[in-house]
Specification:
Elements (H helix, E strand, L loop, with lengths): L2 H23 L8 H18 L2 E2 L17 E3 L9 E2 L2 H8 L4 E7 L2 E8 L2 E7 L5 E3 L2 H4 L6 E3 L6 E8 L2 H9 L11 H9 L4 H5 L4 E7 L11 H10 L7 E4 L4 H11 L7 E8 L2 H6 L10 E4 L6 E12 L4 E13 L2 E7 L3 H7 L6 E7 L3 E7 H9 L19 E6 L2 E6 L9 H7 L12 H9 L16 H6 L5 H15 E3 H7 L7 H10 L4 H6 L2 H5 L5 H13 L1 H11 L3 E3 L14 E4 L9 H10 L3 E3 L8 E3 L8 H9 L3 E2 L1 H8 L4
Parallel strand pairs: 3-13, 21-22, 23-24, 23-25, 25-26
Antiparallel strand pairs: 1-8, 2-7, 4-11, 4-12, 5-6, 5-9, 9-10, 12-13, 14-15, 14-17, 15-16, 15-20, 17-18, 19-20
Helix pairs in contact: 1-2, 13-14, 17-18
């Protein structure tokens, strides 16, 4: 098998073994036997030794997590210049002047410079301002497709782009309940992920690296070709940007191919890069004051459409920020119908001099995000010296009617609601309250809750149980109908019968998660009034609580308004009080970890509930406080087993655990 074939096999094995591990440990299912896993693992290990290439996400590698106080700065050996740009395809073709060149994606992430010494990753530095970047070596070690070891043993310096795919971006955002906390675009998420002070966070973000330049020309002295250097990087195990050798005859066809591909391309890109394939020729051209002459960037020409502004919608968020959103006559842009675009803040609104009925031009930034490009009416009014009426800025919050104020931060003016009790600020609280581990009400997505709040249907938790008052309006809402409404009402009725831990968790008290809510309820025998009267000292004495959680809980329960809301809420509920038999809390004070598949219980969650019913606690990681690790594969080499053995923690099979601790399956 050739080197390229071996590298592709390594990538396949890493992906396959990762999927098997994820299914086994996170999803409680097996997609291959231990024997099959071990055989593939051994094959991967042998190929890594043979090729000298080891990927950062390989199961044979244990990446050490490390937190630092700050990212050190470092000056680049040679300045990283920006490229001159054009939106004209003809200009791009004429730029070639008869020479061959390499056309590739211009990825929209964070540029990184990597240095390898003796075949191992030695240093990773961000582009920064082009002259000084930040050292992020430990973070780079967690990039999922980056080789930590390569076959070439000399010093190797290359540049590439760290990116997060659109699909991973959407998955990460989907896990964030708070609308305002969601990331705006993959580039912002990537930039924040790469520059984390704790590389364990970076590891969770699925950052990928695509090489686009081999900087150290001494690596392959015989090669004077950009295309050949791409091939060399691929042989070292790097994923490189998609690229093609082009001439004046076929460059327009290749640009058209890229343009078609970007509509479904999963990696963020804001254009293309064209570089002379002859490296010596490109370098002989020198540079201008701002740009090198060996390359040029091509930016997609924005598709502009003229339309009419119908209204400005003011959208309040949980932080109190009220954003203006332009609503205009629908137009076709980049293949989709668009009728609204965020104006972002008061400064942009006033800069565009927007007025209802104005003729405006709109486009999609990077072919994705609708934006207002210009206000034609305002321009014409300025030229003719005619008065132009602007949109009024609301003095009252569109949600609660509270007073608004304009605040200026870093030269940007934005509108805020000053009412701390504004319902719009409670969206996150409502989203948690209806979630699966709390009241478990289906049919109330964050978007639906936001609509209900905007329309004044709900102000407090108890209001959710009276949505039948608005049946006619809800049935007529977009996305609803009679069937959806009935399903929602049935879900709300089911939620009336609940447990106290679900209620306590659903209140959203700081630091009170599902486990802590259950623990507190057990300690106070599911007596809400006793919980509300408890002081910090009493709560702090409970194992696993501590002063921070205790203080937050007491402060919440001492607020008269919170007590009123709880009383109104519990008046709508039938709270089930579990019967705790005397002497049944046999696992009180004990902590367990469960891993792998089970035989007696349908899932790890079921076993967890059985342990908690007897007063025990189940955690996700093995520590010195762990009583025992439950794993049917007692002899496995899993990380949890290794940790347990290091700490002298017993590892019990499911059957032995049930016998020893008196739990019935």
């Amino acid at each position: 098998m050739e080197q390229s074939g071996k590298i592709e096999r390594i990538k396949y094995l890493v992906a396959t073994l990762q999927e098997a591990s994820r299914a086994y440990y996170a999803q409680d299912r097996e997609i291959m036997s231990n024997r099959e896993y071990d055989a593939l693992y051994d094959e991967l290990q042998a190929l890594e030794q043979e090729t000298g290439m080891v990927l950062a996400n390989s199961p044979t590698v244990n990446v050490g997590y490390e937190a630092v106080e700050e990212l050190p700065k470092e000056r680049h050996e040679s300045p990283m210049l920006s490229l001159d740009k054009t939106k004209s395809r003809e200009t791009l073709r004429d730029w070639l002047e008869g020479h061959k060149a390499v056309l590739s994606w211009k990825l929209d992430g964070l540029t990184i410079v990597l240095t390898y010494r003796e075949g191992k990753l030695a240093k990773a530095v961000t582009r920064g301002n082009g002259e000084i970047g930040e050292v992020i070596t430990n973070n780079a070690r967690t990039f999922v497709n980056l080789p930590l070891e390569i076959p070439f043993k000399g010093e190797l310096v290359l540049r590439g782009e760290a990116v997060i795919s659109y699909s991973d971006f959407q998955k990460i955002n989907a896990e964030i309940e708070d609308v305002d906390a969601k990331y705006k675009n993959p580039r912002n998420l990537c930039s924040g992920s790469v520059r984390q002070l704790n590389n364990e966070i970076t590891a969770k973000r699925n950052v990928r690296f695509y090489a686009f330049t081999l900087v150290d020309a001494n690596v392959t002295p015989a090669s004077n070709s950009v295309g050949e250097r791409f091939q060399f990087l691929m042989e070292q195990g790097f994923e490189v940007v998609e690229h093609y050798l082009v001439t004046e005859e076929d460059i327009l066809d290749k640009v058209a191919m890229f343009e078609q591909k970007i509509e479904t391309y999963d990696i963020p890109s804001d254009g293309l890069v064209l570089t002379y394939d002859d490296i010596a020729y490109g370098q002989s051209l020198g540079r201008t004051a701002k740009f090198p002459r060996h390359s040029i960037a091509f930016k997609w020409a924005d598709e502009l459409r003229e339309t009419t502004l119908k209204e400005i919608e003011w959208s309040a968020s949980r932080t109190g920020l009220i954003n203006p959103v332009a609503i205009f006559e629908p137009v076709e842009l980049e293949g989709t119908t668009v009728s609204r675009a965020s104006v972002h803040n008061i400064s942009i609104l006033q800069g565009l001099q927007l007025g209802i009925g104005d003729r405006i031009t709109v486009y999609k930034a990077n072919m994705i995000i609708p934006q207002i490009e210009a206000n034609l009416t305002a321009m014409e009014s300025a030229e003719s010296m005619q008065e132009h009426r602007l949109v009024d800025i609301p003095t009252a919050c569109p949600v609660c009617g509270g007073k608004t104020e304009i605040r200026q931060v870093n030269d940007v003016q934005s509108l805020y609601c000053t009412n701390e009790k504004c319902a719009a600020k409670q969206i996150k609280s409502f989203t948690l309250f209806v979630s699966r581990d709390a009241m478990n009400i289906d049919g109330l997505s964050e978007a639906t809750l936001e609509k209900f709040i905007d329309l004044g249907f709900i102000h407090e938790f108890a209001d959710l149980f009276h949505l039948d008052r608005y049946q006619e309006q809800i049935v007529e809402m977009e996305g609803f109908g009679e069937k959806s409404y009935q399903n929602l009402m049935e879900s709300i009725e089911r939620a009336r019968h609940t447990t106290l831990p679900r209620v306590i968790y659903g209140l959203g008290i700081a630091n009170i998660g599902v486990a802590n809510a259950k623990m507190l309820c057990r300690y106070f025998d599911h007596d809400l009034s006793r919980m509300q009267q408890a002081d910090v000292e009493t709560l702090s004495a409970i194992d696993g609580v501590g002063e921070v959680i205790a203080t937050a809980f007491v402060n919440y329960m001492r607020d008269p308004d919170n007590l009123r809301k709880i009383a109104e809420l519990t008046g709508e509920l039938e709270i089930e009080i579990p019967k705790v038999e005397e002497g049944s809390q046999t696992l009180s004070g004990l902590s367990f970890v469960i891993t792998g598949s089970l035989e007696k219980f349908a899932s790890r969650s079921d076993l967890k509930e059985a342990i908690e019913a007897k007063g025990g606690k189940v955690t996700g990681s093995v520590t010195s406080k762990t009583t025992c690790l439950v794993n049917n594969d007692v002899a496995s080499g899993s990380s949890k087993n290794k940790k347990a053995k290091e700490l002298g923690i017993p590892i019990l099979s499911e059957e032995d655990f049930l016998k020893q601790y008196g739990i019935n399956s």
